[in-house]
Design brief:
single chain; mainly alpha; Vanadium-containing Chloroperoxidase, domain 1; two-stranded antiparallel sheet; 2 strands
C-alpha cells in the first residue's frame, strides 16, 4: 500500500507541475447555443490575448519536453526500477481486474473542447476555429504518438504487443485537456487534466502501459494541443477565414440506436 500511495502522489504532482507552469488566459464571449458563431463579436477580442494564444514561445516547450524526455529515458533504461515498481504495485492493486472505461473517457476532453462553446460556455474562438485547432492538434498527436509506437517498439507490460510507448489513450486525453485549458480557462483545464490523469492511472491499472509510456503520452498530448494553436493564423489565411465575418455556423448532434446490432451511435453535422 505504501507503493500505491507514492504512485498516487506522483501522478497528482504531475497535474500540479503542468497547471502551474502555464498562466491563465482571459475568458472571451460565449457562443449562442448550437447556432450562433462568435465571429460577429471577435472584433472585441484583444490582439494581445490572441497573440498569447497563437504565438510560439520557447518556454511553452518546457513541460511537454520534460515529460517526453522522461518517457523516452524510461524506455531506454531496460532496468528501470521505477517502471517495475509501479507495475508491481498496480498488479497488487488490480488483483487481475480491469476497468475499461478509459477506452471511452479518453474522447471526452476533446469532444468538450469542440461543443462547450456552442452550449453557452465562454470561449476564445468560434466553432470553425475550434474545429481547425482541434483537427490540427489531433493530427499532430497521431503523427507523433503513433509514429513513435512503430519506431520504438517497446513491449507492453502484459506482453500483448510491442507498441507500448507512448500511450495513445493518454496522448489523446491530454491533447483534449490542454485544448480545454487554452480555450476556456484554468477551471475547465483543471477538470480536463484531472480526467486525463485518471485515464493515465487506468492505463497503469489495466497493465497496458509502463509509467514512462504515460509520461511521454502526456507530453505529446500537451505539445500537440500547442501545435494546433500555433497553426491557427496560417490556417486562417489558408482557408480565408475572416475573424470579423458575420456568417454563422450551425451544429447538430443526433443520437441514434440500432436495435439489430444493439449499438448506440451519434451523428454530427456542422455547417460553417
Amino acid at each position: 500500500m505504501r507503493n500505491i500511495s507514492h504512485i498516487i502522489k506522483f501522478l497528482l504532482s504531475i497535474i500540479v507541475v503542468i497547471l502551474f507552469s502555464f498562466h491563465a488566459y482571459s475568458e472571451m464571449p460565449n457562443d449562442t447555443i448550437f447556432s450562433q458563431d462568435l465571429s460577429s463579436r471577435e472584433s472585441d477580442i484583444c490582439d494581445e490575448a490572441e497573440s498569447q494564444f497563437t504565438k510560439f514561445k520557447p518556454q511553452q516547450l518546457i513541460v511537454p519536453g520534460v515529460l517526453m524526455v522522461s518517457g523516452l529515458a524510461g524506455a531506454i533504461d531496460c532496468e528501470n526500477n521505477l517502471n517495475r515498481s509501479v507495475r508491481d504495485a498496480m498488479t497488487d492493486l488490480s488483483d487481475g481486474r480491469q476497468c475499461k472505461i478509459d477506452d471511452y473517457l479518453r474522447f471526452l476532453p476533446s469532444a468538450a473542447h469542440l461543443v462547450m462553446g456552442s452550449l453557452g460556455i465562454k470561449s476564445k474562438h468560434n466553432f470553425k476555429e475550434r474545429f481547425l485547432i482541434s483537427a490540427t492538434a489531433h493530427a499532430a498527436m497521431l503523427v507523433i504518438g503513433y509514429g513513435s509506437k512503430f519506431i520504438i517498439h517497446e513491449q507492453r507490460p502484459d506482453l500483448s504487443d510491442n507498441k507500448s510507448l507512448p500511450s495513445g489513450h493518454v496522448a489523446l486525453a491530454f491533447t483534449g485537456a490542454e485544448l480545454l485549458r487554452m480555450e476556456y480557462g484554468t477551471a475547465y483545464g483543471i477538470a480536463g487534466y484531472t480526467l486525463a490523469t485518471g485515464i493515465a492511472f487506468l492505463r497503469l491499472y489495466n497493465n497496458k502501459h509502463w509509467l514512462n509510456d504515460v509520461l511521454m503520452g502526456a507530453g505529446i498530448g500537451i505539445l500537440s494541443a500547442r501545435i494546433g494553436a500555433w497553426m491557427l493564423p496560417f490556417e486562417r489565411k489558408l482557408f480565408k477565414i475572416n475573424k470579423k465575418s458575420n456568417k454563422s455556423s450551425t451544429i447538430a448532434l443526433m443520437p441514434t440506436y440500432n436495435p439489430l446490432d444493439k449499438a448506440c451511435m451519434m451523428s454530427f453535422n456542422a455547417i460553417f
